[in-house]
Amino acid sequence: MRNAEEADGFDGEASNTSMISGASSPYQPTTEPVHSRNVFGGIRCDTAYLKSNLGILKIIEVVLSLIAFICIETVMVCLPCGGVYFFEFVSCSALLITSILLLIFSLSIHTKVPHINWSLTDLVSTATSSFFFLLASIVLAALNRKSGGEITAVIVGFLVMAVYAFNTYLAVRSWCTRDGSSSTTQSSEYIRARST
C-alpha cells in the first residue's frame, strides 16, 4: 500500500492534481487537437466562382465533353476502331478531370489545400485537354466511316477543343498576373527586410 506521501507524488513524478488541472505542469500537450486538422470542415458552394468566366467555361467544358462522349458511344460499327477508341478515351478523361476540378473550385476545397498551385494545375489540365481533343478530333475525322455519330463527335470535339483553348488562354493570363504579383510582393518584403 502507498502511504500519503507516495499518493501526493515524489521527486521526479508529477502529482495527479497538477496533471488534471494543468496548473504549472511541465507535461503540457504538444499535439494539436484533431478537430483543427479537418480539411473538409468548411466546405461551401462558391457561387461567385460559378458565375465567373472560368467557372462558366468549366461548366461548358463538362457539358461538351459529356456530349462528345455520348456521341462517340453511339457509334456501333467502326473499322478501323483506333480513332473511335482514342476519342472515347480523351472525352472520358477530360470529362472526369474537368468535373473534379469544377467540384474543387466550386466547393472552395482548393483553399483548404494550399500546398498545390491550383492555377498551374488548371492551366496544365486545360492545355492538355485542348491538345488531346485537337489530336483526337483530327484522328477521328481522318479515320471515320462517315456515320452520324462520328461526324457529330468530330464537330463537338473541335468545339470543345476551342473552349479548352480559350480557357487555357485565360488560365495563362491568370497565372502570369498571380506570378507577377507574388514576385513583386516578395521583392517589396525583401526590400523592407533589408531596410530594417
TrEMBL record:
Ranges of residues in domain MARVEL: 49-176
InterPro entries from the UniProt entry: Marvel, MARVEL-CKLF_proteins
Organism domain of life: Eukaryota
Membrane topology: Multi-pass membrane protein
Annotated TM spans: 59-87, 93-111, 123-145, 151-172
Chief location: membrane
Pfam families: MARVEL
Subcellular location: Membrane
GO CC entries: membrane
Keywords, comma-separated and alphabetical: Membrane, Transmembrane, Transmembrane helix
PANTHER family: CKLF-LIKE MARVEL TRANSMEMBRANE DOMAIN-CONTAINING PROTEIN 4 (PTHR22776:SF29), MARVEL-CONTAINING POTENTIAL LIPID RAFT-ASSOCIATED PROTEIN (PTHR22776)
Protein name, as recorded: MARVEL domain-containing protein
